[in-house]
Design brief:
The structure holds 2 protein chains of 2 kinds. Chain A is an alpha/beta fold. Chain A has a domain of 131 residues: Rossmann fold, CATH 3.40.50. Chain A has 8 helices and 10 strands. In chain A, the strands form 3 sheets. In chain A, strands 7-6-8-9-10 form a 5-stranded parallel β-sheet, with helices on both faces. A 3-stranded antiparallel β-sheet of chain A has the order 2-3-5. Chain A starts with a helix and ends in a 5-residue tail after the last helix. In chain B, a hairpin with a 2-residue loop joins β8 and β9. Classes of the chains: A alpha/beta, B alpha+beta. Chains A and B meet through α1, β6, α5 and α6 of A and α3, α6 and α7 of B.
């Protein structure tokens, strides 16, 4: 027992401050991209996922982006990735980065914020991903991140949940289980699509084995990344319930 | 036919007449061989069965193949290690292994298959009950379906039915190497990005006949060992959590993140993505970064040692770990288990030792164990120590020179077997090229493919409440198995 107490003293208090102004992705990390040019032909040709459109309305679709950096390598004069982790968006269209400011997600309306703002329970469903998105959700429950201090928690039963956090491209084999889980959540409920897979199929876009989130399950929040950094996920969750600006 | 690890060979030369193929396979497996891959590849209106067998102690690899048009002789009754390979062949090609005792779906990806709907093994009796769990589990984890046949708390049998994570990866390599292949490899099992990316690069480089610079190999080793450190540390914490010992659980949860962040320092991504590429690596280290990594590793290792030592000294933890979920050595060998799970049952198998390639020359690792949860936990701790030593060594003396080289066209009509010791065990990629030098077939075997049956066995005659603990002691990949 005494050894456990001594270890506790040695290991110290490790919970990080969040949000904090100096928080950024690691030096070589890829966050919100910035377009430096309207000529994206070279960058578009380098993207294996069709995430960049050139021509009249040039843009980079963060929903398709797996953050491999191939575009910035091929066309450094056109695309640059910053270390900004605030990647979440409220609607699919906002995920497309154009020349202007990136439109980060909105907070829920006053009514839902009143319900979820101080106590938000999430049921996570892994629907065909690679387990990296799940791993970086799990990390939020460790003492370093301490998700619980914000009143947010992942729960076992959909009956206890206010929202559904979906990861993975939704394989054919998980489609029914996902729908049943969604149906089991009491209303009102919110849906979060976390990671490139859940948003667009990610690395598996176009596979017949993957069907995506069914159209009749409305998504309230998108978190790009492959996988999204825990900073991006935490930012998105707290932004959604209005705990941070 | 003897072949070399990570070197191209001619598939044609491995051809045997069908009768001889099965005789040879049976005699080589009986002589102590372990099938690292066994699959069917389409060939001129029929199929070709290809088997790669490893003799781990001698570091010897062999390959045999034969043409197959219809049902073939199942070797599973004599060699249970082939059970899932043969089921997979049946599901993918329709060639029926005659005499297979357990011919059930693997990934539910054929026409009309409904995930999880299969003919389950059932125990009957007035007081026997069945517990079904999944595909959606209680935690933030991947989906799978588990059925326990129980009498009270006692588990007679556990049947594990997976396939929910199937996203059709193997066939997407065909026609490659293409621009998306590397990310496929990195996301075969996301927590094993470095392991699978290396196996993929190794296969491509073997077929291209490229020698990767020593500095690149050391940097790859660095990422692979950091991956092992992070996962083993996280799992020891999770094991502590499963027996309600919260100090180690909390400490290791944080420390796993510190180790992942070291990987992110190297390549920007916590899982090591964007680091590997055929011919070398995409990111190099400068002296400042090396210094930073050394400082971080030293601090993290010190804290891991402190956190993990509590496990071995706490009676309540030992009591739950010891004697729980035993997999005897004979069973581990019979099922072809790999990685820490095998080593914890006393099987001396580690790719880094048996098939050493740069930067693992001279690698040694002790194995011993009684096959229980305690052994599977303790083996992780032994490996943490070894990995920290390796990483420190590479950071102290990183070979000079370039970190990448040009990787040209692949040799046509060839094949290569690429083995890497991922943190869960041996990863095997087999790549075949056609006459024009593109992938004609690509076969992936994640360590979990072998080891899920080990978990089922660990539960036999155990208590159902021991399931989470046993499960975590293996911590297998669903997506790596489902592909």
């Amino acid at each position: 027992m005494i050894k456990a107490l001594l270890a506790r003293i040695k290991q110290g208090y490790r919970t990080m401050e969040f949000p904090a102004p100096e928080l950024k992705l690691p030096h070589r990390g890829l966050g919100v991209p910035r377009l430096k040019s309207r000529h994206l032909e070279k960058a578009a040709a380098a993207c294996p996922y069709g995430g960049i459109s050139a021509g009249e309305n040039p843009g980079l679709d963060l929903g398709r982006c797996v953050f491999c950096g191939a575009c910035a390598k091929a066309a450094p004069e056109a695309v640059e990735f910053t270390r900004e982790y605030k990647l979440c968006a409220s609607d699919r269209g906002s995920l497309v980065v154009t020349g202007g400011e990136y439109r980060r997600a909105e907070t829920l309306g006053a009514e839902l914020r009143g319900l979820f703002g101080r106590s938000f329970r999430l049921r996570q469903v892994s629907a065909g991903g690679c387990n990296a998105c799940e791993a970086d959700c799990n990390v939020l429950a460790t003492p370093a991140w301490d998700l619980g201090r914000f009143g947010v928690q992942f729960v076992a039963s959909p009956r206890h949940a206010d929202g559904l956090l979906i990861t993975g491209p939704v394989t054919r084999n998980m489609e029914l289980a996902l729908r049943k889980t969604y149906d089991a959540l009491p209303s009102p409920k919110v849906v979060i699509a976390s990671g490139a897979c859940a948003i667009s199929g990610g690395p598996y876009a176009g596979h017949e084995e993957c069907v995506g989130i069914p159209a009749d399950i409305p998504v309230d929040m998108y978190i790009p990344g492959c996988p999204p950094h825990p900073l991006s996920i935490l930012d998105a969750l707290l932004r959604l319930i209005g705990r941070i600006d | 036919m003897k072949i070399e690890h990570q070197a191209a060979f001619s598939l044609g030369a491995s051809d045997l007449e069908p009768g001889l193929f099965f005789e040879t396979a049976a005699s080589r497996l009986a002589a102590g061989g372990r099938a690292v891959s066994y699959f069917a590849v389409p060939e001129a209106g029929a199929w070709r069965l290809v088997m790669a067998v490893a003799f781990d102690r001698e570091g010897r690899l062999e390959a045999y193949s034969t043409r197959a048009e219809g049902p073939f002789r199942a070797l599973t009754p004599a060699f249970p290690q082939l059970h899932l390979f043969e089921r997979e062949i049946y599901e993918q090609s329709g060639l029926k292994p005659e005499g297979h005792p357990w011919l059930k779906p693997v990934r539910f990806n054929t026409a009309g298959a409904v995930p999880g709907v299969a003919d389950y093994f059932a125990v009957h009796g007035s007081q026997v009950h069945e517990v079904a769990v999944g595909p959606v589990h209680a935690g933030v984890i991947e989906p799978g379906h588990f059925r326990f046949q129980c009498h009270g708390e006692k588990v007679f049998h556990l049947e594990i039915m997976l396939g929910y994570q199937h996203r059709g990866l193997e066939k997407r390599f065909i026609g490659g190497p293409g621009a998306r292949c590397l990310r496929y490899a990195e996301t075969l099992a996301g927590d094993t990005s470095a392991g699978h990316a290396w196996a993929y690069c190794g296969a491509v480089e073997a077929l291209a006949g490229v020698n990767v610079p020593p500095r690149a190999q050391a940097l790859r080793g660095l990422l692979l060992e950091l991956e092992r450190l992070a996962n083993h540390t996280g799992d020891l914490g999770a094991l502590a959590g499963d027996v309600a010992y919260l100090p180690t659980s909390s400490f290791c949860g944080r420390l796993r993140g510190d180790l992942l962040n070291m990987t992110a320092l190297v390549c920007g991504n916590r899982f090591g993505r964007n680091m590997f590429k055929p011919g070398g690596v995409s990111f190099d280290l400068d002296p400042a970064l090396i210094k930073e990594l050394k400082l971080r590793l030293e601090a993290a290792y010190r804290d891991v040692q402190n956190a993990v030592s509590l496990l071995w000294e706490t009676a309540s933890v030992r009591d739950r770990f010891e004697g729980t979920g035993v997999v005897p050595k004979e069973a581990a060998e019979g099922l072809g288990l790999v990685g820490p799970a095998a080593r914890a049952s006393g099987v001396g198998l580690d790719t880094r030792r048996n098939f050493p390639s740069e930067p693992y020359q001279g690698f040694t690792l002790g194995v011993s164990g009684s096959g229980d949860v305690y052994s599977r936990a303790y083996v992780r701790w032994l490996e943490i120590q070894k990995s920290a030593e390796l990483v420190t060594g590479w950071l102290d003396a990183l070979p000079e020179g370039p970190s990448e080289t040009e990787c040209g066209a692949l040799k046509p009509e060839s094949a290569a077997v690429s083995l890497v010791e991922g943190w869960r065990g041996q990863i095997c990629h087999v790549a075949l090229t056609d006459a024009s030098g593109v992938f004609r077939h690509y076969k992936i075997t994640d360590p979990s493919f072998h080891n899920w049956q080990g978990l089922a066995l660990a539960l036999r005659n155990g208590e159902i409440s021991d399931f989470p603990l046993c499960n975590k002691s293996f911590n297998l990949s669903y997506c790596g198995r489902d592909l």
